[in-house]
Amino acid sequence: MNILLIGPPGAGKGSQAEKLVSQKAFKHLSTGDLFRKALREKTPLGLKAGSYVDRGALVPDSITIGLVEEALGDFTGNVIFDGFPRTVPQSEALDQFLQKRDQKLDHVISLEVSDDVVLRRLTGRRWAPQSGKIYHVDFNPPKNSGKCDETGEELAIRSDDRPEVVQSRLKNFREITWPLLKHYKIRGILKEVNGEGAPEKIFQSIVSFLK
Ligand code: AMP
Prior knowledge:
Elements: E1 2-6, H1 13-23, E2 27-30, H2 31-40, H3 44-54, H4 61-72, E3 79-82, H5 88-100, E4 107-112, H6 115-123, E5 125-127, E6 134-136, H7 163-186, E7 190-194, H8 199-210
Parallel strand pairs: 1-3, 1-4, 2-3, 4-7
Antiparallel strand pairs: 5-6
Bound molecules: adenosine monophosphate (AMP).
Residues 9, 31-32, 35, 52-53, 56-59, 64, 83-84, 86, 90, 160, 169 line the site of adenosine monophosphate.
């Protein structure tokens, strides 16, 4: 089964994907995580993608599609796509990619969250650059203030969580990614889920839908 989690920044795609992965045999493919890892390690991909990620712009399709193809390699198991596709060409590339493996995108779960909630969530979001773990100062604080539970490293604000960058990420979502939802609705594979409640409750709605 291949699932896409789609929603604005801060909708909780990453957290819900992690919960699904911990309960079911899925590979979690997050293009945002892959870009941040490449940036941290200063790989050629990181150097190409860095300026886009930092200012909240979409990385060009050719780079992003290449990254996903490389990350999946010859993996043919269940995948949760998180943050990919975000554009029409990416969605077409994914369909072709899956078709070649006699697979398809089975479900698209849209986490619906208002702009106000996005802003509130992202202002308090903190992350651990090495482990990639995400926290929130109020909703999901670390055990020791300002430190990652796993690695003990100092938590930081993601460069793209700055308010002016968040606005541009939201705009990209509404203008470029949102139209994909209509396309998936017509295909009959879209499930809209209220993404504003407690994470556990949202997770239960996703799981009962997938059952
Ligand atoms: P995310 O963690 O999913 O919010 O992604 C963080 C950033 O990575 C985005 O603001 C983009 O700059 C870049 N990015 C992630 N996924 C994509 C994608 N599918 N297409 C283009 N850029 C992406």
